[in-house]
Amino acid sequence: MAQSVAQPTATNPVVPATLPLKAIAPWAVFFGILMLILLYFVGAEQGATSVFSGTDVHEWVHDARHLLGFPCH
What's the gap between Cα 34 and its chain centre? Predict the structure, then answer.
């Protein structure tokens, strides 16, 4: 037999689950920093601001540069 599921009524309203900001903040900071690092490698890792010598990083992210509209050549 199928189990019955309580349907919301006027006396039994559905209350959305809450997620405290303290639970989200560390993940938001982590992913924000990760996105900034990714943006640096895709957008600026070449020339005078290069962290790694050579063109390896440029070649790995070359298509992403074009996709995101960064000029690279």
Answer: 8
